[in-house]
Design goal:
Distance between the termini: 35 Å
Structural class: alpha/beta
Radius of gyration: 19 Å
Strand content: 15-25%
Shape: globular
Number of strands: 10
Helix content: 25-40%
CATH class: Alpha Beta
Order of helices and strands: HEEEEHEHHHEHEHEHEEH
Number of domains: 1
CATH topology: Rossmann fold
Length: 355
């Protein structure tokens, strides 16, 4: 089996972790490393989140759900900021689990989520259009980016989108229709990176779900092969603004990094994480995403929990490992958040929901 570096169960000063009671301190150290080297520092959560229902349809689609367009707002260092969210809640008597989806477009019935199927499976869905939070550019005055000093926090856009997802959860936890113990944050591609970083920081999310998140997400850097996205691709593809300012500097020094992406998955322990890959998505690196699942697994095993329970050799198309606290599946096809991915994620959440 591959040896994963840096070692997960050893403090940064080299001291080994020998007792489960040391895990919270090591987890905080993992987060500190990732803040310092990859994503930047996020501001403290606001004291209060205010929400306004802008529009509501009680019997949406065929009448099996309500639909609300909500404005989520809070005070920042530079004044009040708000952004819109679409919220879909099934008509059920008991509180329901919820997916918080970071999405690329504001459209209802978007190609990245099968709305009626999600609701028919008993889930609420909150959808954030990421550009409503801050533009996917190097404009540091756009939306949330202009509300905090980047010199103070050195955070990138991934950190900002993740911060917004946590503010949506602030609101959802006030809704009696939502089961507070079964919240999941989910995203695809760069928003899969975001979902993992959000779940790593915010322990209120029971589930962090990453779809085809690749470099800076679930993919283990030290196992990259030609054709995979690499850290050095941040520069020619003009996306260093997703990360803290120092992250691209590791592009040609992979073996020297004091982190790798198994740290990101492990920071979610002892909660649940699920990673999905596509066989033809070489850029995201299916083998490398599965490798991070393997590399993060000792965090759960150390705590007496099943981590990744599946093949150690590269997965075959159709493999779906959902028994442990780390789920992984590989489907055929290309870079996309598909209905098949959603079915796998819904089954994973149903398997591991708090009762």
């Amino acid at each position: 089996m591959m040896k994963f570096e840096p070692e997960l169960l050893r403090f940064e000063n080299g001291t080994p972790i020998t007792e489960p009671g040391q895990w919270p301190a090591r987890r905080e150290e993992l987060l500190e490393i990732l803040r310092r080297e990859v994503y930047g520092y996020s501001p403290a959560a606001p004291d209060k989140v205010t929400c306004e229902v802008l529009n509501r349809q009680e019997n949406f689609c065929s009448g099996q759900m309500s639909m609300e367009r909500i404005s989520v707002g809070f005070e920042t260092d530079h004044g009040f900021f708000s952004f819109p969210v679409h919220l879909f809640i099934p008509h059920q008597e008991q509180p329901v689990p919820v997916f918080v989806l970071l999405n690329f477009r504001p459209d209802i019935f978007d190609q990245y989520y099968p709305l009626e199927e999600i609701v028919d499976n008993g889930f609420a869905l909150a959808v954030i259009h990421y550009n409503d939070v801050t533009a996917d550019t190097d404009d540091w005055n756009s939306g949330l980016a202009g509300m905090y000093s980047r010199e103070k926090y050195n955070w990138g856009k991934i950190g900002m989108w993740a911060f917004a997802a946590s503010r949506v959860l602030d609101y959802l936890l006030t809704r009696p229709e939502i089961d507070p113990s079964n919240a999941a944050v989910i995203g695809h591609s760069r928003l899969g990176k975001t979902a993992l970083w959000c779940a790593a920081q915010d322990e209120r999310f029971r589930f962090g779900i990453s779809n085809n998140s690749g470099s800076g997400g679930a993919a283990y850097n030290r196992a990259k092969v030609p054709g995979n996205e690499r850290i050095c691709d941040c520069i020619p593809y003009k996306v260093p603004f997703w990360y803290c300012s120092g992250y691209p500097e590791w592009g040609d020094k992979i073996e020297e990094m004091p982190f790798d992406q198994h740290f990101l998955l492990a920071a979610i322990a002892p909660r649940y994480v699920c990673v999905g890959s596509a066989a033809e998505d070489l850029w995201a690196g299916p083998v490398q995403e599965q490798a991070s699942c393997l590399g993060a697994s000792p965090a759960w095993e150390f705590l007496g929990l099943p981590g990744y329970v599946g093949k150690t050799e590269p997965a075959a198309v159709g493999d779906d490992f959902s028994e442990g606290h780390i789920g992984y599946h590989l489907r055929d096809g290309v870079h996309f958040l598909s209905r098949r991915d959603w079915v796998s994620y819904m089954n994973f959440v149903k398997t591991h929901m708090a009762k």
